Amino acid sequence: MLDEDSSLNFGESNSLSIWLPEPAQVDSSYAHRREHTLDWLAKSSTPRARECRRFLNENLSRFPKETQEYFRHCLRIRWYETLFELIVARLLQEMGAEISFESRNQQRKCPDFMARFPDVSIVVEAVSPAFNREVEDESTSRIPLLDFIESKVPEGWRTAVWELPDIGPSDSKTGFKKEIERMLDIPSPTDSSTDLEWADELSTGVIRLHLFPSNSARDKILVEPALTAWGDSEKRIKYAIHRKRKQVRSSESPVLLAVQNTSISGSFEDYDIASFGRTFDRYDQLMRLVEVGFQPTGILNEKRDEAPTYAGVLAFVQTGFLGGRAPVLYQHPRFSGILPRAALELEVRTYDHQAACIRVKESENVDLMRGMRFVRV
Q1: What is the mean pLDDT of residues 347-369?
Q2: What distances in angstroms separate CA 151 from CA 46, 111, 241, 357, one per listed residue?
Q3: Is the pLDDT of residue 194 over 50?
Q4: 223, 245, 268 — which closes off a domain?
């Protein structure tokens, strides 16, 4: 974030020159697995890249000069987290708020935003926790293996990589490299060449490749191995809610925690469980259903006497360049204050202790996301 003494107002646009101009040369490439998104956007002339540049340029132009510079800097060093902060800030603007950036609270902490709505001001802290950490680690460890395969694919061929051995960053890759060099020691295809399939087993696992004759100049790897993810969304959401309490605890205004669920299988049901709890069925020894109920084990249903730190959670699911569903407000059952009317126009989910169930109020602002003009291709 910016220096702790800074307090920047988001109310009025103060546009700089276009940050991401259109590239001078035609380049139809898509981002390489090691390539930073900003580096790809600086060179690619594909329709998707053009739309992504438009999205960033348009939305950054809605902020003052200092804030634009902050986002430009942080998008380079913390791409995913900063992109989420940008989306949250812009959506608050679309909801009618004027926003100050990193205002100090009583404990001299600096939450992300102070959102001043016409009726009520709130504090908003944005967090994008790491979901499926094991998958991310596995994907990272595959990068040097895929890079080596790509460097050895002969001209005129492209390949699908169906399986890769389990080789970590610090493991020896000597045997893997020798086998890839042997498998791909083939001549360029002729007009009569057909597909080739190669498979071999190393001590660390299986290599399985499928090669296709192709004159395309695009990336030589068409398909990468699938990654298997185990759902950890409930744990990650709970941890994010718990971890950010210290940052906002002494805030004088109601606090909303904006959380981004980037899990491959993420859904708002993950927030239902993490925030409020889950339903259960109980059967007797003859497998007859004898009870249906709800276990209020969510972090917002913790039994405490003091007022809650959060007024609620502003839940996002896989929100990025393409947009996605508007956020859902999970209102804290023990919050007794007032929230902005604009926030209550979102879909709101609350827990009814008497009925032991989650109540859902449908959104009254179905066009909220359109003002952001997300990427369309």
Answers
A1: 94
A2: 24, 46, 44, 56
A3: yes
A4: 223
Q: Which percentage of the chain shows pLDDT scores above 90?
A: 55
Alpha-carbon span 203 to 175, nearest angstrom: 9
Residue 60 CB: number of other CB atoms within 10 A? Answer: 22
Find where tokens 């708002």 sit: 268
| Co-location of 250 and 219 in the same domain | no
Q: How confident is the model at residue 10 (pLDDT cuts 50, 70, 90)?
A: very low
Q: How confident is the model at residue 11 (pLDDT cuts 50, 70, 90)?
A: very low
Is there a single domain that holds both residue 160 and residue 279?
no
Number of domains composing the chain: 2
- Of 223, 241, 258, the residue that ends a domain is 223
Closest by Cα among 335, 370, 333 to 349: 333
Q: What is the rounded average pLDDT for all residues in the chain?
A: 87
- Long-range contacts for 48-56 (Cβ within 8 Å, ≥24 apart)? 48/375, 48/377, 50/22, 51/321, 51/375, 51/376, 51/377, 52/321, 52/375, 53/20, 53/21, 53/22, 54/373, 54/375, 55/321, 55/372, 55/373, 55/374, 55/375, 56/19, 56/20
Q: Decide: 332 and 300 in contact? Cβ < 8 Å.
A: yes
pTM of the predicted model as reported, rounded to 2 decimal places: 0.78
Q: Give the pLDDT confidence of 215-272 residue by residue, as tens digits.
A: 776 678 888 887 665 557 888 899 889 888 888 887 889 999 999 988 777 899 999 9
Residue 106 sits in the same domain as residue 168: no
Residue ranges making up the domain that contains 286 = 79-132+232-372
Chain centroid offset of residue 60 CA: 19
Q: Quote the CA–CA distance of 319 and 191 in Å, as a whole number.
A: 45
